[in-house]
Amino acid sequence: DSAEASPSVVFENIERCSPNCLQMLLENISGLTLDADFTVELIPEINVAVATFIKNIDTKKFVEKCSQHKRIREFKMTARLLESTQTIKAENLPDSISTDYLTVYFESTRNGGGPVSDVQLLPEENSAIITFCGHKGNT
Q1: Nearest 5°: CA angle at 46, between 57 and 19?
Q2: pTM greater than 0.70 (yes/no)
Q3: Could you tell me which of 68, 20, 22 has the C-alpha nearest to residue 49?
Q4: Are 20 and 67 part of one and the same domain?
Q5: Domain total for the chain?
Q6: pLDDT digit of tens for each residue in the chain (139 aa)?
Q7: Which intervals hold domain PARP14 second RRM (predicted)?
Q8: What is the CATH number of the domain that holds 69?
């Protein structure tokens, strides 16, 4: 069921590795190119980075490769597949955003979306919680 594997890999405990170092490390391990084949999003608040592969690769094998890689172990980082979720939080939204707009946006297949079952606006945070009908389309 590799086809069902997440295209995203979570790297935890990234504080010992600079963002540039991490990107080069991932290029070395995967043989792929940043931006063309994958992206990296840093989430410093929780000491995590998420690599999302644009190019179709076996992310399960990639995670195995990472966990055995000398440098990843030296940095004491861990790698795992990003689990599927039915709910996401969209942040930094404009004040005038509507639930209808967000529903249509996140249902767009062009944006990687899927059927939305609920949108909850959080105006005080300029964010919204979007709940999908299934695990498909919440990248």
Answers
A1: 55
A2: no
A3: 22
A4: yes
A5: 2
A6: 344 678 899 999 999 999 999 999 999 999 999 999 999 999 888 899 999 999 899 999 999 999 999 999 999 999 999 987 888 899 999 999 999 999 999 998 776 788 999 999 999 999 999 999 875 444 4
A7: 5-83
A8: 3.30.70
